[in-house]
Every structure is written in structure tokens, then in C-alpha cells.
Amino acid sequence: MINNNLRFDEIGYWSEIKLDIVKKYAQAYSTILSNQKLHHVYVDAFAGSGVNLSRQTGEFIRGSPLNALLVEPPFRHYFFIDIKEDKTEQLRGLVKDRKDISIYTGDANVVLLEQVFPKIQWSDYRRGLCLLDPYGLHVDWEVLKTAGHMKTVDIFLNFPVMDMNRNALWRNPDKVRDEEIGRMTRSWGDESWRNIVYSSEGMLFKDMTVKQSNEVVIEAFRKRLNEVGGFGYVSEALPMRNSAGVIVYYLLLASQKAVAAKIVNDIFNKFRNRNR
Questions:
Q1: Which CATH number goes with the domain that contains 41?
Q2: Position 253 in a domain
Q3: Quick one: pLDDT band at residue 243, thresholds 50, 70, 90?
Q4: What is the pLDDT of residue 208?
Q5: Does any domain span residue 5?
Q6: pTM (two decimals)
Q7: 110 in a structural domain
Q8: Spatial contact of 22 and 28, defined as CB atoms under 8 Å apart
């Protein structure tokens, strides 16, 4: 039953597309892992309440946790996390007392590293698909690096470039608050992002810099996921836009398998040229 006192997240056209993309990949992932007889789990680190409101229709639509529960063949276990207690309580009410679901209220970075990832170990023949779809710049690099070096977890990642541009990646970096610089560094893993974002190449004087495009930043991060994060393959990045056509974030998948990146790239290509 839906709690009418809860304020639900309203999502636009591209967010509905994202839900469809994740559902399609989850279906392919679960089919492959089930055929391999591996214990595979689904992790949603910013799960929300389980339902959203569509800006297009004003109607309730299933969120990513409920979509995952409909995948056939099913995952062996589901881990849902959200920092807001009212949302996790709503989600508990929707999924009832299923034994194959664990719901946590707390910081996803902490819960993943301390409670969820330890349950997805290579030695136990376990694998996981983890959706990291934060509200903003809230995923720590340590989570990504840990997943990559475990070799057992595929990461579906929302790379929140709009939040970065609004709060951390200003044209004049000297005016950015220390708090926002810290958030950017935690998400990137170190301060190498500064040399990516601000370049003096082609400038008349070396102390002059120009802010690089979104495309330069996301390509550098994709490379970092591979070379530093430990992922064997990283998909192309799909730009996701708001109603004004502005890129809000990029969606990408990091995996150990070439076939995973190929599947996601094929799915992305079906949506890449859509305009709204």
C-alpha cells in the first residue's frame, strides 16, 4: 500500500527511459548468470520508496527496486538502501516480509562497503549487479574501486555532471567552496580531476586555464574506472537530459566482461538519438 503522506520523487521523460534501460540490462544479466548457476544478487544503493510520480502522466510508476523484483529469472537476493527512513519504510511496506530482500537505512557508501559487498565474494561464487543512481554527487570513489577490484560486481552508474558543474566545476575554481571541492575529490578518488577539468593547453600563458567540456570529463572518468578502478570494461556513456535538453548526468556500466559492455551499448544505442 502506498503511503499518501509521503512525498514521492517526480521524474521526467529521461528518468523513465533510465528505468527502462536498467530493467533491460538486469533482465539480460540475470538470464546469463542464472544459466551459469551463479548466486547473483541485485543491489540498489539509492533505492527510494519503490515508486515514483511521472511528470508526463501524473501517475505512479514502478521505481528500480520494484522493476528488479519483476525480472525473470529472478535474482537470488536483493539489497535495497536509502538514507531516508520514510522511503525505506515505504519500500518495506511494498515488498512485505520477503526473505530474499534486505533493506538498509543509511549512507550507501558505508552500507555497501561494510554490509553488502562482503556478501558478494568471488570465493563464494557470488556475483552482483549494483545500481548507483544518486540524487547528486554522493558516491565515494572507494565504493567504485572496491567493486572493481572485487571482480564480482557490475556497476550501473549515474555520473552527475550537472551537480558537479553547479557546485564544484566552476569556470573560476578559486571561488568554489572547500566543501564542494572535497565532495568532488571523494567522488573522483584524488585531486587528479583538477588537471582534467582545467587545462592550460593552447593558452598564451601557462597560468591561464580553460574549463573542459562535459565530454572530456566523462571520458576521463571512464578511463579512470578501467585503469584505476579495476573494471575490465566500461561502456560508452549515455547523456541523460532534462526537459530543456541540458545534460543532467551520464549513464554508464562498469564490468569485468566485454559482453556486458556490449549489451549495454546496444541498449544505449536504441535511446541515444531520442529528443524530448
A1: 3.40.50.150
A2: yes
A3: confident
A4: 44
A5: no
A6: 0.92
A7: yes
A8: no
